[in-house]
Amino acid sequence: MISFEQAFSDTEKAAESARRSAAGLVTRARALERAAKSGNIADIRRAQDRLDEALRALRQEVQNATSSWPFTDEEVEQYLNEQYADELREVAGGIGLNIYERDRNLISYPSIVRMLPRENAVKVDRKKISTIRPSHLAGLLLKNQTRSSGFPSARFLESLYSVYSDIVSGEDSSGRLMKATGRVVPLARIYGLITALPGGAREYDRSDFARDLYTLDANGPRRTKRGATVSFPSSTGARRRKDLFTFIGPEGQSAEYYGIRFSEDV
Fold first, then answer.
1. What pTM was computed for the model?
2. Which of 4, 7, 142, 191 has the smallest set of CB atoms within 10 Å of its CB?
3. Up-side HSE of residue 245: CA atoms within 13 Å toward CB?
4. What's the mean pLDDT in 228-254?
5. What's the rounded Cα separation, in Å, for the pair 88 and 85?
């Protein structure tokens, strides 16, 4: 089985040949039109013969173009399931773009790519993309690296602080955060509350949350509007996968997040 990139290229070339042949047919038709306008019978006969030749050539090119895509629907779904990720990574590497695989997702910071085989598409972050030619998608991912996040880190920080405050104040009789040594809250608990509404975890899954944590951790900001400072303590006791949120940075570095703490200045 040939690659998707080769199949798309072959189909593109077949379509281009059909387009050129169609343009040739139009040219022959115009020549016949000019001959008829001027009344040149010899040119009319020549143009008619050439028009007929152009039509036969066009029929062949159209047939070539309509049969150029080699995959059945079942084969497309299978390819997306089994081979597409490797091909996309290889093509991306050719333009200097690193793509890493984690939890069946492809990560090209800051984008997360998910396969949608049954829909002949992929999902880039929260957007369904049907233009899946590997070279085209790699170009989109490369462009995404120069764009700002759709969920600004400052807003994300305030959301984390709001959920964290509700958890801590609910267990602290004073209703305030502990000074300087605020309590560490597992991020799994924060994530569970953020995605508590029906469909929340589907629309904003663990990889999305881990990506936003990584971006906040790497680029800031660190302080909320109320002056609380965020940190992400690790835990040597955190061994269960569901307790950890992992992400891969732009250079392939792995980051793990277990807990969050907000501390207020004394």
1. 0.79
2. 142
3. 25
4. 80
5. 5
